[in-house]
Amino acid sequence: MAEETIPLKVARYRPEHASMPYFDEYRVPYREDMVVLDALNHIKDEIDGSLAYRWSCRMGVCGSCGMMVNGKPRLTCSTFLREFYPKRVVVGPLRHFPVVRDLVVDMTDFMVKLKEVKPWIIRKEERPVQEGEYLQTTEEVDAYKQFSMCINCMLCYAACPVYGLEPSFIGPAAIALAQRYNKDNRDQGAEERLEICSEHDGIWQCTFVGECTKACPKGVDPAGAIQQYKLVGAMAWFKSWLLPWGER
Ligand code: SF4
Ligand code: FES
Questions:
Q1: Which portions of the chain are predicted below pLDDT 70?
Q2: Which of 134, 155, 189, 190 has the greatest number of C-beta atoms within 10 Å?
């Protein structure tokens, strides 16, 4: 019996060869248990070793294999070819990011934004070490756990039309990450983060399209995080207006 195959159309960008991106077409062996990343690995190993893309864990954990698959931001290690077979699969670099080469995008903007929200526990005063760790109950962990599941895959940025139009927008994952620490009862940095996230490029830019949450492969719900944050921001503004001398 003839081997089953599936066609792939893959975006290429090799600035030393061509100033504009273009597509290459390949046909790879098809098995029901193959994911898009397997197909790219087949191309790289057997057909065209020059193809560049990122991946590492192959199990939806490292966040490095995000690409556009048939127009949608997906983790290629968790997207099965059977979803598309026998039709063609079109693979491109993550939308809204500058392309370095083929399917590899420049992550600098995303990394800068993550750092801007101070994603670490801020304490005004540390407790002496001899008093022991900061223990938490299950309920206290549950308050932020959902937001701590982010794997920094950037799919939510590729899905976000606001980030596409206004790249200065701090964006879904960074705001969800800020909430991860705001909701941690060991943290005392919520006010500092609110100042950053309430700036012009912060939470108020979001028009609640909700595409970020639909694209997220880890159930983080960045759109929900932004709406919660807007409520906190509105309350803080209202208090500052009622109590202009800082009696909060
Ligand atoms: S919030 Fe979800 S989609 Fe966005 S970077 Fe984190 S895991 Fe990826
Ligand atoms: S290779 Fe790690 S998430 Fe896909």
A1: 241, 243-248
A2: 155
CB-CB neighbours of 93 under 10 Å: 26
Reported as a single tens digit per residue, the pLDDT across 203-231 is 988 988 899 999 999 999 999 999 998 88
Structural tokens at position 94: 């993550």
Q: Minimum-distance ligand to the CA of 57?
A: 2
Cα 175 to middle of ligand 1, angstroms: 11
Q: Is the dihedral of CA 105, 109, 112, 113 positive or negative?
A: negative
CA distance 36 to 33: 10
Ligand closest in space to the Cα of 176: 1
Q: Are 91 and 40 in contact (CB under 8 A)?
A: yes
Nearest to 200 by CA among 173, 165, 241, 166: 166
How many whole angstroms separate alpha carbon 84 and alpha carbon 87?
5
Check the CA dihedral 57-103-220-168 and report its sign: positive
Residue with CA closest to ligand 1 atom 1 = 173
Torsion of CA 97, 159, 18, 45, to 10 degrees: 100
217 C-beta neighbours (distance < 10 Å), count: 19
Q: Are 216 and 198 in contact (CB under 8 A)?
A: no
For the Cβ of 40 lying below 6 angstroms from any atom of ligand 2, the answer is no
pLDDT at residue 235, rounded to an integer: 79
> Terminus-to-terminus CA distance in the chain, angstroms?
75
CA distance 170 to 185: 24
Q: What is the structure's pLDDT at 247?
A: 52
